[in-house]
Amino acid sequence: MSELLAPTPTGGPDFVQLLTPEGQRVEHPEYSFDVGEADEAEVVRGFYRDMVLTRRIDTESTALQRHGELGIWAQLLGQEAAQIGSGRALRPQDYVFPTYREHGVAYCRGVDPLRLLGLFRGVDQGSWDPRQNNFANYTIVIGAQTLHATGYAMGVQRDGAIGTGDPERDTAVIAYFGDGASSQGDVNESFVFAASYNAPVVFFCQNNQWAISEPIERQSRIPLYQRAHGFGFPGVRVDGNDVLATYAVTQAALQRAREGNGPTMVEAYTYRMGAHTTTDDPTRYRMSEELEKWKLKDPIARVKVYLTRNALADQDFFDEVETEAEQLGARLRDGCKALPDPSPLSIFDQVYVEQTDELAEQRDGYAAYLETFEGAH
């Protein structure tokens, strides 16, 4: 990879790292891991648990797809720290606009992973209630969610829900996207509007090095976070495999938005250790040596080393987390297979808040068509 794009391995002002791949805590001049009055060791143990369970959701879902139970699955293997660190930095009133890969963030927002499987199984269109979890539906159109997030953030601003000093009212919005999506027009348009209107939005880019089969060096000649500067707002690059640093950087960016100081771009420098989706074969376009190099930076392994080395968790804790992961895997396997098939007419139910005459006519026509098949209803 070009030196122009690669971060300093040991951190530095332009690459925020608080926990090295060897599990050693380090300092950064601008960011620190601050959990307030909470027990820091307990918080880090919670991060470890979150990442292990998120990885289990991913591996089980991949296996279910391989067995024909899901139509497709978007893997996140290797990106657990980026998602859990940023997801746990959110407050309840903050709003999330995801892509189709933010399974860890969905977990942090209390979305049952079985609802994610329903979407990828094709039995619903995303059955969680965005109003309940402040977590929007998955967006398949690459980059479109950044415009949705910016528009929502402008609404938050006009509702007076920023800069009040009330920690339960002031609201930030976060939009997730990948390095490939950063080349989309929608993303750049959202940057323009967010900067122009000082919208309280955090653009969180998970730079996992590959836009399907296109490497990052073919997408940009400068680090992605520096693109924000050209639009007039700050950008920061964080070690996306460091859950502590990701939490700290996202926490600061969200708070900046809540205080009315406008947008921030966070580039979480990570790596997609799995495939783009289960229809992809990454061995066709990347070298195995590259993957092995990134395995040494595994986000879960470094937290486990840190907890063990500093006697912050014992084997009983790790065994309990593994048992919980096994139970989660079993629930996902059984629950996925038990998901009911939808009524063919349900596709018309949530197109509009109020059904239009034209849509009602289309529904009635499709219902009449289904009646021509024996046992269709």
Description of the structure:
The protein is an alpha/beta fold and 377 residues long. It folds into 2 domains: 40-342, Thiamin diphosphate (ThDP)-binding fold, Pyr/PP domains (Rossmann fold, 3-Layer(aba) Sandwich), CATH 3.40.50; 343-377. The protein has helices spanning 40-66, 80-88, 103-108, 113-121, 130-133, 144-158, 185-197, 227-231, 243-258, 288-295, 299-309, 315-338, 357-371, and strands at 95-97, 173-178, 201-207, 210-211, 214-215, 235-239, 264-269. Strands 1-2-3-7-6 form a 5-stranded parallel β-sheet, with helices on both faces. Helix 1 packs antiparallel against helix 11, helix 1 (40-66) runs parallel beside helix 12 (315-338) and helix 6 packs parallel to helix 7 (185-197). It starts with 39 loop residues before the first helix and ends in a 6-residue tail after the last helix. The model has no long low-confidence stretch (mean pLDDT 94).
Show the helix and strand layout:
Layout: H1 40-66, H2 80-88, E1 95-97, H3 103-108, H4 113-121, H5 130-133, H6 144-158, E2 173-178, H7 185-197, E3 201-207, E4 210-211, E5 214-215, H8 227-231, E6 235-239, H9 243-258, E7 264-269, H10 288-295, H11 299-309, H12 315-338, H13 357-371
Parallel strand pairs: 1-2, 2-3, 3-7, 6-7
Antiparallel strand pairs: 4-5
